[in-house]
Amino acid sequence: MNQVQQEQLRQLVEQAWKLYGELSSHFWEESIIRKVDNDLWENPLLPDCEVWEVLTRKDDRTVAVTHLGWHTRRQQWLEEEIGTHVINLDSVRLEKIEDYRDIPDWAFTYLHERKRKSESKEKDITLAAYEHLMQEAGFDRQSEQYRSEARRIIERIIEGMTVFDALETVENNILREKLRPFIYVTVLRAGVVILRESDAISAALAEDLRTYLRSLTEGEHR
Predict the structure, then answer these.
(1) How far apart are CA 67 and CA 12, in angstroms?
(2) What is 34-50 written as a DSSP string?
(3) How much of the chain exceeds pLDDT 70, in percent?
(4) pLDDT per position as a tens digit, 28-82
(5) Which residues contact 196 (CB under 8 A, 6 or more apart)?
(6) Which of 19, 20, 60, 133 has minimal Cβ neighbours within 10 Å of its Cβ?
(7) Residue 157: exposed, middle, or buried by beta-carbon count in 10 A (0-12, 13-18, 19+)?
(8) What are the structural domain ranges in the chain?
(9) CA nearest 163: which of 175, 145, 146, 181?
(10) Contact 12, 82 (CB under 8 A)
(11) Alpha helices in the chain (DSSP H)
């Protein structure tokens, strides 16, 4: 695409989006202009036409997507064939982030920051839930070292480590073996909570399991 074509393209894109309000001062920042694979856009109503896609910054949370047709025989843009839509970055499902690798870098960075904050929030909520379960089991009556190591192990488990491997990070052999039943029971109690919340087990069964699991550690935490 030569400079004249690109300038005409920019003017058409701006005209299309000005219909929706004033353009952001960052509208063209880190923009992407690319020709779309003709196999994906083959249209018998548009012979001798190339389709171009333009990704611009509508605002800090929205990618403006514009499609324009370039008539290769006439050597001009088809103004009547301009199509627009937006990608709302706050609406993108976080598990689908990798499907958006072809958007501008600023937008992809925004998605990853959203994911990081979401994971951090989920981790904090999960840690709080585990803390509650440990307190219920008399956790506060244990030594500071015991409580510190237990919290560290639970954090490793939340991050994806197995219970066995997380326990193996405790250097003190005596403390590790003292923590072992407590950590396993705590993780199992958390599992019961999840099963109950998903209606996989009845309230009566959940209470029965909670009572039994609590009994396994009550003696050592008195």
Answers:
(1) 10
(2) EEPPHHHH--TTSTTEE
(3) 93
(4) 999 999 998 765 455 555 667 888 999 999 999 999 999 998 888 889 998 776 8
(5) 203, 206
(6) 19
(7) buried
(8) 3-88, 118-221
(9) 181
(10) yes
(11) 3-18, 38-41, 105-136, 144-158, 163-167, 173-197, 203-218
